[in-house]
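Lecture notes, continued. The same structure-token format from the folding unit now serves as the input rather than the output. Read the line below as a description of shape only.
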């Protein structure tokens, strides 16, 4: 069984249903108002577990009442949440507005996710290094993603959602340090959900040309 570690966000989603999206200066009535577990990291961890992978979630939740909602689906799916830290303050919140045409807009308050620091990531070093696949996204800081990528010994998947300014060299550094022990050419990390098992990374998010560092 593959071992998947997700280093990323846990949120609570607040769902609002609107006839149309709001414009500046307006006040509109909405229905919905329900809460559900969310966060791009938690969603990825839940999906991996439901697909049959042994999955661990590394992230942070607050000390508020919402924290139990944020972890509920992970626990139900069998994800290991023992490495999810509880920090003072609110759990991450995403306000999801959906209009009558099905178009949505999302506003995210990072909350505890902003406390996922490089130092915290270092505390997960053994877990990250022992994974077959490590998944990162854009709902924790670029510095924390960089630190996590340095610890990866298996395959790295970087899902830049939302798009943040990351240095592609964080992945190249890992490849260079591990390629001497690999048979065949280095494996390029996956950037997103492409079908190729070894895609070349795209640098569009950072504005840098997609070129190899050697």
């Amino acid at each position: 069984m593959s071992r998947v570690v997700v280093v990323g966000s846990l949120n609570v989603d607040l769902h609002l249903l609107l006839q149309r999206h709001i414009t500046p200066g307006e006040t509109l009535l909405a229905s919905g108002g329900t809460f559900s577990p969310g966060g791009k990291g938690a969603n990825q961890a839940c999906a991996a577990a439901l697909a049959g992978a042994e999955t661990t979630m590394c992230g942070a939740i607050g000390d508020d009442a919402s924290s139990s909602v944020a972890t509920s689906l992970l626990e139900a799916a069998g994800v290991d949440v023992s490495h999810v830290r509880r920090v003072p303050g609110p759990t991450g919140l995403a306000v999801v507005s959906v209009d009558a045409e099905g178009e949505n807009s999302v506003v995210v308050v990072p909350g505890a996710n902003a406390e996922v620091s490089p130092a915290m990531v270092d505390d997960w070093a053994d877990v990250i290094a022992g994974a077959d696949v490590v998944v990162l996204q854009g709902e924790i800081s670029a510095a924390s993603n960089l630190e996590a990528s340095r610890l990866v010994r298996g395959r790295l998947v970087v899902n830049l959602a939302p798009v943040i300014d990351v240095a592609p060299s964080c992945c190249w550094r890992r490849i260079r340090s591990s390629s001497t022990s690999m048979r065949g050419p280095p494996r390029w990390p996956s950037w997103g959900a492409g079908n190729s098992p070894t895609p070349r990374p795209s640098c569009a998010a950072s504005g840098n040309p997609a070129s190899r560092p050697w």
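Point for the exam: Residues 7 and 58 are 5 Å apart (CA to CA).
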